[in-house]
User: Which sequence fits this backbone?
């Protein structure tokens, strides 16, 4: 009878937890789904969508488990970009549900665990990664899967749970190498229980076998590479290349090579991100929350601190632009500490209030996270076509059959993806300058566009750069690699400029570089055109009528990437205005600069230039004075020093 009662109690507990988890997952997905990107997002997202079309190999560490999943998604649910975004959202929702289950299993009150999960789902970092084609939400899910099974083992003492923990750990490493963050916490949690096992060697061997089974997905890399796919980063079919790809050797110069000021900047970036996620909640309640967690369960508290410390030490010593994905786990832990402190504070306040007041206020407090979940601001990712828009507009200025060097890797992936989907013709040749220091990429270019000249001396230059890299400190290797890339661009441009036009999309749109890669460069709207010495260049006035939705203005666009594209369009229109003014067409110059200010109303250079044309060429002094007054005010507000010649003219012509 006692056994039957225990089974009933366990069944009721599992049913309750399962129902709450199901409701939680559905609520989160209802919020995430409307914001999922239907088009390729920026950065690595564009690469992942591209390789989902060809079973390719992504940048190190290869992400074999993720690659297999997204290729299956593309096969069963085109368009793949949206399908992969939905997978990110589902992984985020599942990770939050797992966190809820972990808290419940640890003995945390069910209501707190549910509310905590709802609030974490609203964090801007989690939402931002959940609606794009990225690896990070799946990474969080797998690490939490490992942690959940380890905690189950602590309760059950079943060997099968220990072996599952090892298997899930191998699976997690098959996706992302930052799974090692969890190792100190796991070792601390499991070692006391593991010591009690009498025959440790058989158990260790079975754990190793289970972990190896999870790691078997890495076999995808050499097997697929041997099939020579269209996209084959690192060529991991040989043992040396395989180890180089899996270990992320190409990114090692960014890791643990920062000086003190750079580490300080990384720490500052983390705290800025933390403030963005939790604001006052973090500042006021994280410390009492730490104390409460320590009092609740010292082993779990220590394991959490070890996990957090491993993640932060890595993040502070790794220079990488897209840190938001790496911060997800630290934000999850700190947010839970802060919410624990908030819960403690609310309980203390409730003790001071009458029971009737508590009975009235408590349901309202519990409803706030749910209301927040449904009324949180949508990021507009489902309308984010900014990368695709920019790619189309760049190619509208580049002739078919020309060669385009792009310093922005996004344009390379987006072009390749649009060509794979037959939305751009295959005679649009784009070269990602960042990848030119890798021989596998040169092989790709030769196979993809055999009609172009790819000099044999490129490999010699790559070998020379690699030799130089072995002779310098790791922190200098980025600059050395860039110098090698610049020389390779010059080799390719020299070999092809005689029989086709060469263009470049420079990553820094503000650059007014006349010479780069050893060639003169003519400004050409969004791109630059390479010009041989002594050649006559016909005047060319480009069109700055780009994707019209960006004319809403930079301030009114929802995402940082859309704002970035609006800035590029504004720069192009300003360039056009300068060229028109130099060629005696001031009326048209003013209209071009006016359009630049529609794309970016705070573009001080366009304001200054438009005022100059109005005053100096058109003699429309009142209108020019108004434009220049706005320019001076805006420049000072943004911390710039306005042009002293403009200030002097305004003082003399009040």
Assistant:
């Amino acid at each position: 009878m006692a056994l039957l009662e225990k089974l009933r109690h366990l069944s009721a507990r599992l049913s309750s937890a399962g129902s709450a988890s199901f409701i939680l997952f559905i609520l989160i997905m209802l919020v995430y789904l409307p914001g999922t990107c239907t088009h390729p997002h920026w950065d690595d997202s564009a690469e992942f969508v591209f390789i989902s079309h060809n079973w390719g190999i992504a940048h190190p560490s290869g992400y074999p488990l993720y690659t297999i999943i997204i290729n299956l998604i593309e096969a069963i649910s085109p368009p793949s970009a949206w399908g992969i975004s939905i997978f990110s959202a589902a992984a985020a929702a599942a990770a939050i549900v797992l966190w809820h289950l972990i808290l419940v299993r640890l003995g945390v009150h069910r209501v707190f665990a549910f509310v905590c999960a709802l609030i974490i789902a609203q964090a801007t970092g989690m939402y931002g990664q959940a609606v794009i084609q990225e690896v990070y939400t799946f990474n969080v899910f797998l690490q939490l899967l490992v942690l959940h099974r380890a905690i189950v083992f602590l309760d059950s003492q079943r060997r099968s749970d220990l072996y599952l923990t090892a298997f899930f750990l191998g699976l997690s490493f098959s996706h992302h190498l930052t799974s090692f963050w969890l190792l100190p916490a796991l070792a601390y949690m499991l070692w006391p229980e593991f010591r009690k096992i009498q025959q440790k060697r058989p158990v260790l061997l079975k754990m190793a076998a289970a972990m190896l089974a999870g790691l078997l997905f890495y076999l995808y890399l050499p097997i697929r590479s041997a099939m020579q796919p269209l996209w084959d980063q690192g060529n991991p079919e040989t043992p040396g290349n395989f180890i180089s790809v899996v270990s992320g050797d190409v990114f090692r110069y960014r890791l643990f090579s920062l000086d003190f000021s750079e580490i300080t900047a990384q720490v500052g970036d983390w705290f800025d991100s933390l403030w963005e996620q939790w604001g006052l909640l973090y500042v006021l309640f994280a410390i009492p929350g730490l104390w409460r967690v320590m009092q609740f369960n010292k082993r779990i508290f220590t394991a959490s601190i070890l996990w957090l410390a491993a993640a932060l030490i890595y993040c502070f010593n790794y220079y990488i632009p897209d840190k938001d994905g790496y911060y997800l786990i630290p934000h999850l832990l700190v947010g839970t500490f802060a919410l624990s402190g908030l819960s403690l504070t609310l309980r203390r306040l409730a003790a001071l209030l009458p029971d009737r007041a508590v009975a009235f206020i408590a349901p309202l407090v519990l409803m706030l996270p749910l209301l927040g979940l449904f009324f949180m601001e949508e990021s507009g990712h489902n309308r984010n076509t900014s990368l695709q828009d920019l790619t189309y507009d760049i190619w509208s200025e580049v002739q078919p059959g020309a060669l385009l060097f792009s310093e922005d890797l996004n344009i390379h992936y987006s072009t390749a993806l649009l060509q794979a989907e037959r939305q751009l013709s295959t005679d649009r040749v784009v070269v990602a300058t960042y990848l030119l220091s890798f021989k596998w990429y040169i092989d790709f270019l030769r196979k993809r566009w055999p009609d172009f000249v790819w000099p044999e001396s490129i490999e010699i230059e790559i070998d020379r750069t690699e030799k130089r890299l072995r002779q310098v400190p790791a922190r200098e290797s980025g600059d050395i690699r860039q110098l090698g890339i610049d020389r390779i661009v010059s080799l390719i441009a020299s070999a092809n400029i005689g029989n086709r036009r060469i263009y470049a999309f420079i990553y820094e749109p503000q650059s007014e570089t006349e010479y780069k890669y050893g060639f003169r460069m003519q400004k050409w709207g969004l791109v630059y055109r390479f010009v041989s010495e002594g050649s006559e260049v016909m005047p060319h006035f480009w069109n700055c009528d780009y994707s019209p939705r960006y004319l809403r203005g930079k301030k009114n666009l929802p995402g940082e990437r859309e704002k970035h594209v609006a800035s590029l369009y504004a720069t192009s229109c300003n360039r056009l205005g300068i060229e028109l003014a130099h060629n005696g067409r001031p009326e048209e110059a003013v209209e071009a600069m006016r359009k630049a200010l529609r794309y970016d109303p705070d573009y001080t250079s366009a304001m200054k230039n438009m005022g100059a044309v109005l005053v100096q060429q058109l003699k429309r002094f009142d209108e020019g004075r108004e434009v220049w007054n706005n320019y001076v005010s805006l420049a000072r507000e943004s911390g710039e020093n306005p042009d002293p010649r403009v200030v002097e003219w305004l003082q003399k012509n009040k």
